[in-house]
Write a structure and sequence with these properties.
It is built from one helix and eight strands, in the order αββββββββ. By secondary structure, it is mainly β. The longest helix has 5 residues. It is globular.
Length: about 140
């Protein structure tokens, strides 16, 4: 968990359920947990009860590397709710484990005007109540 409060946003927390609990709480142990199908071995995100590729219900959460690249992003400058710190970056990070395996997240740890498509990033977690929000920061070679 980083102390970079200048780039953190007020968050509306997800309702935890059987399908998404591992994703939202894996950060407690420093793990980014993504569902994976045992039948076809494809990763599945967001979490769901069946594989969207083969239809198998044999899916379980598995730790991934937490490494990825910014595929696309947007800089939000609108303060949609009181206390929301702006600007902040909302990004689709493509995880290295699989093409088109995206996590929608915030990019932290760098000025918003330095974020770019193709930028390598690593996961970190911000604990908010009983949820560990996965955020991504530039990797060392980018900093």
């Amino acid at each position: 968990m980083s102390g970079d409060t200048e780039t953190r946003a007020i968050r509306q927390l997800p309702l935890l359920d059987q399908e998404n609990r591992a994703f939202w709480t894996g950060g407690k142990d420093g793990a980014l947990l993504i569902q994976r199908c045992a039948a076809c071995r494809r990763y599945i995100h967001p979490p769901r009860p069946r594989c969207h590729c083969c239809g198998s219900a044999d899916v379980a959460s598995e730790a991934v590397s937490g490494q990825g690249v910014v595929k696309t992003f947007s800089v939000n400058v609108q303060q949609w709710m009181p206390g929301l710190r702006v600007p902040f970056v909302l990004a689709a990070v493509e995880l290295v484990e699989q093409d088109r395996l995206y996590v929608l997240t915030n990019i932290v740890g760098c000025p918003v005007d330095q974020v770019r498509a193709g930028m390598p990033v690593s996961v970190e977690f911000e604990q908010v109540e009983d949820v560990w929000v996965p955020l991504f920061h530039p990797t060392e070679q980018e900093a």
